[in-house]
Amino acid sequence: MASTTDTAPPGAATPGTGPQVPPTPHDPASPKVVPARHYARWAAAVAVVVLVAQFVHGLATNPVWEWHVFRDYVFSETIVQAVWVTLQLTAYATVLGFLLGTVLAFMRLSRSPVLQTVAWSYIWIFRSIPMIVQLVFWFNLSALYEELGVGIPFGPVFWSVDSNSLIGTIGAAVIGLTLHQAAYAAEIVRGGVIAVDHGQLEAAAALGIPRLRQIRRIVLPQAMRAILPTAGNEIIGLLKGTSVVYVMSIGELFYQVQVIYGRNGRVIPLLLVATAWYVVLTSLLSIAQYYVERRYARGANRTPPPTPLQRARRFVRDLRAAAARRNQPVVPLKPLGDSR
């Protein structure tokens, strides 16, 4: 007869207790997982933080910066008017340059050898000549052509006007910047157009869509995704490149800064004024470029990532929700079986 006092086998459940799981013995052969320690990365981060802190400290404590002079001139009437002139030159050259560049791009893409040769020659010439040389040339156009007129080619002239009265200083600057910008804009637009799959045009032609509508409604909207990043970079470069017109004595930002520090000798703070305005204007153009690219990316990304403003709003909402949860009173749980 078996005894009732025999012990249960290992791992079996005993009365009044749960299943007993034997402890897992440590396997000396199993490797110990140790996270990687990036000492070089931490050292580089510390070095960068120290350098940035030293630079900021120098900005705040070095008297050569003369921040009081900077505050006096950064929003002065002369500087603000110069900024407005800079924006005007940038806007005119951007709009006219990209319009002409688009025409040149499609001339290069046409099947006419004459149009291809003319467009290629224009791009080659205006990309070869420095911008400052072009500006000086247009500024002295009256030395080459005293009068400009309208008439029959190689025949009589019906109407003429003096070159100096027709093309002033601002006009010469706009013409030089536009023609220079058009050469680069043409290649930017051409690169975006040839990036579109040719099958799109074949499908549109099969549907009987006119050629002009194919370009306007099918090619260009898709090409804009490839055009915009480079075009935005080119516009920012043009904004800073308008400083070259100082050789024409036009009152843009850099020229006015030169005039002011030529009078009072405060070179460093006045250059800092120009730098601050260029940084602000470039930042605004970069923000505009971001939202324009986001708009034209809707066809590829049905759910585009949130914008920085949307991320900030979501972060504030999460903080408020967490604070509201912390302020809610804690309701004690009733014990089981308590019907009250």
Automatic annotation (TrEMBL):
Name of one Pfam family that matches: BPD_transp_1
Membrane topology: Multi-pass membrane protein
Subcellular location: Cell membrane
Annotated Low complexity bias: 1-19
Gene3D superfamilies: MetI-like (1.10.3720.10)
InterPro entries linked to this entry: AA_ABC_transptr_permease_3TM, ArtM/GltK/GlnP/TcyL/YhdX-like, MetI-like, MetI-like_sf
Annotated stretches, region: Disordered: 1-32
Keyword Transferase: no
Coiled-coil stretches noted in the UniProt entry, renumbered to this chain: none
ABC transmembrane type-1 domain boundaries: 83-289
Sequence intervals crossing the membrane: 39-59, 79-107, 119-145, 165-186, 235-255, 267-292
Keywords linked to the UniProt accession: Amino-acid transport, Cell membrane, Membrane, Transmembrane, Transmembrane helix, Transport
Family in the record: Belongs to the binding-protein-dependent transport system permease family.
Protein name: ABC transmembrane type-1 domain-containing protein
Species for this entry: Streptomyces coeruleofuscus
Lineage, broadest ranks: Bacteria, Bacillati, Actinomycetota, Actinomycetes, Kitasatosporales
